[in-house]
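Running this now, will post back.
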Amino acid sequence: MIKAVIFDVDGVLLDSFEANFLFFQKLFQGTGFTPPTREEYKPMFHLSMWEVIKLITHLDDKKEIEKIWSLGRDREFGTPDPKLSEGAIPTVRRLSEEYLLAIATGRVRTTMFEGPLADLKQYFKTAVGYEDTENHKPDPEPLLLAAEQLGVWAEECVYIGDVENDIKAARAAGMKSIIYSEVSINGADFITSRFEEIPDLIKKL
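Update: finished.
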């Protein structure tokens, strides 16, 4: 029986590709590196900020990477607000009436509820960000920590993601998974391109 729903943020709760792309444009320009083009950034969209910085700068020195990461964390060069995914607000409200809700994301904690996502913060009992775990998706550690903080077993949770790594993380954690995407991805329990369908799909798990 499903007792908790754990959400990813980028590509799920937030339609954030454009905002994230512009954020990295400003971050790398501000730190003296050539920013990625839109096409170059597409395969990086679901990577953590640390991983994107390492890929773009080709730095190996953790202290140098951390300097740039800290500037990004503190939004020293600014960033536009992303958009909430269509249907996210009514769906999250509906789910909160029946399930415990949490977030497990590669975003840093300071930016997790910035902008439009602040309107949904009240519905989430806990949120796991990049700094909260040593390992990151597709490792199950962030999902398992979210379940632990909610006080439920992993098998009582479903993870809502949008890429293959989310399926791998959910499977490794012993959780069900629903993929929110217009692209078919094998391995999830369900896939949908409409946020409003998620509650009915959870009922079928």
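Residues 93 and 205 are 20 Å apart (CA to CA). More later if anyone needs it.
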